[in-house]
Amino acid sequence: MGETGAVTPARKAPLDHYLPPKGVADELLRPDGTLRPVWKPMIDHLAGRNPDQVNQDFARGDLYLQDAGVYYRQYTGDESALRDWPLSHIPVIIGETEWSKLAEGIAQRAELLERTMADLYGPATLVKRGILPPQLVARNPEWLRPMVGIKPRSDHYLYFLAFEIGRSPDGSWLVLGDRTQAPSGAGFALENRMATLRVFNDLYQETNVHRLAAFFRTFRDRLTQLRGPEQGQVAILTPGQNTDTYFEHAYIARYLGFLLLESEDLVSVDGKLMVRTISGLEPVSVLWRRLDSRFADPLELDESSALGTPGMVGTLRSGAVTMLNCLGSGVLEARALMAFMPRISEALMGERLKLPNIATWWCGQASERAYVGENLERMMIGPALSTQLPFEIDSSTALGGRFRDNARGPVRDWLDKNGGALVGQQAVTLSTTPAMIDGKLMPRPMVVRVFAARTKDGWTVMPGGYARIGRTEDPTALAMQSGGSVADVWVVSDAPVSTETLSGQQPGPFIRRMPGRLPARAADNLFWLGRYVERADFTARTLRAYHLRLEDNGGTPMPVFDQLGRYLEGRGLYLAEPLPDLFLNLLERARGCASKVRDRFSDDGWYALDELEGAARDLAGAVDHGDATGRALSQLLRKLAGFAGLVNDNMFRFSGWRFMSMGRALERGVQISDLLAVFSASGAAQGSLDAALEIGDSVMTHRRRYSVETNRNTVVDLLALDPENPRSVIYQAGVLLDQQAKLPRPGKSSQLTEVGRRILRVHTDLSVATPEVLDSAALAKLADDLQAVSDAIHTQYMG
Predict the structure, then answer these.
(1) Residue 257 to residue 382: CA distance in whole angstroms
(2) Model pLDDT for residues 648-658, shown as the tens digit of each residue
(3) Which of 192, 243, 351, 477 has its CA 20 to 30 A from that of 798?
(4) Pairwise CA distance, residues 459 & 585, whole Å
(5) pTM score over 0.90
């Protein structure tokens, strides 16, 4: 309260330190310094929260991203590492009226790019008429000569595009870059939205923010319609988990319900594109490509590519598959092309650009080169065919008449000597947007990535997108690799907006649809995920038995202790450290398998596995030998059990779950057989049978089941032959038999497969066996027979 009794307006507090640079457009404030109306609810909301509350709000968004496993891959030299998703919690807010005009310009530009590509790979009228210099096409490594004359099956080259846009100092919007190759970010935009919802849930509901789901639903429906009469699979093609946007590929595949494939999953057969599945080859009708064109086919494009599928171009030539975007679309991303977009628009569409791009001059023309040379201080000069954005400055570019590397010599000499290979672009002055920096709202440079998708009714533009925000005032450091962050983009309306979801009511009667075919590579990774997790569980139990006895023994030699040590070392588990590297590597391998099937793995399952590996590594450096290690291993075993229970309870019983369950059962059977072969042998050390029961997690069951003292027959019976014991070998054979019977058979034959025969033989042998006949040699052979089942599974389903 002031002296007059008036309440001081709290809403001014967030803006006390907010001072945009002079001459720079700002998203929050008008040029006269007043607040833009669309931002008032956000500023009022922040003004009503104290710093602790704001931090708690932001922490909810960060926790969501952590739980969902959202990450990006950061590259440093030859190495890379996974990093948490760098959310800038304050969204960029744009009014519906302004956005509608932007969307019109984006849709027009998308259609212009479509027509440009159709010309470059078709009649080439732009070059013939002198509108586009031929060297900008012929010398561009993204212009793929084998694609010339190939008309897309759907009659369209482009289906999904992204555009980098920024606000100029006068407040108007400019296109800074076109992304036509394999544009990323749409999935991250969804995750940004989900995280921002956690931060501003109440405000979001009150602010009439346009939803994103309808954009994805109409695009998904269009891809489904493109399958054609053969009704083949719709799939997303990813370079694999080592690409920096792999998380998004997996997320979008899961969100839209499409297959996520790598090139090794595909094969060209008689001009058709087929995917290797556990049921054999299945046709692919629509392929959303997320790797660069030149890597797609080592047969006709880049012969050194390890990411491609031989014959991919041939499948396009035969019209067997619809690809989006079509191979060769990267030619449209060249910086120099922007210099000619106004003329191309008038030539191909008969209209001017509704949304202009940044001023660009190709320096292969004398007058343009002279103009750039006379205005070096206002120019960014770089390679004409580069796809970098104007604010991405590196050693190959000059800004303001200077190189970052002063040893390169005068810029004007470079320009005169290499004019045809260079382009000049207006030096970017990026607009600013509010970001919370060290507890204060500060203006930071930003660009917005906007997405356009082709539907049956033409181009539609996502009502939002994602913004890249600079951590500092440096406009050249927006990329996440340079420490930048990302923010959600809200398009707000004055009236209530539709609350559409991805799911729409389908016409006709309800049909329960089964999951799509399982790619062989996915089956392989799920199978080995099960094996690695079970192997880690068994190894942890064996290590725990060793360390507990080490503590109980007090250092006095003990035969069973020595036998456990030899057994572990024989398996490569050297005991100089409490938790050997090999054990940690098992969890790392399990996580690696899960990462390759992120589209088929729940967020909870992924988080549990990620937490498990992290806990193991933390414990490895925090415990010593003996009882402390035993307790630490008990904690890890509980986490392993939690992960197994989570997956078992929550995972849909489709083929992928069956392969993972078979992997676990097979590994458990092998480990128990191998354990019994050693610890029930006639010369085994005293206490070996008790150790085997402990490692086999069957101590209590043995006490209740057998009234006699522990002996070899009771232990072998319980751990090998008891069909009611979930730890026994015969129980695992039963699981294998049951799950394999539910997998698809080649040609839908009623005959047993080789896998089925091998499993049945193991199960039958165990069913008629007695403890007396299962000596060490028989148990070792049993382990070998189960390994042979694993080989047969690989040959039949993944080979």
Answers:
(1) 41
(2) 777 778 888 99
(3) 243
(4) 48
(5) no
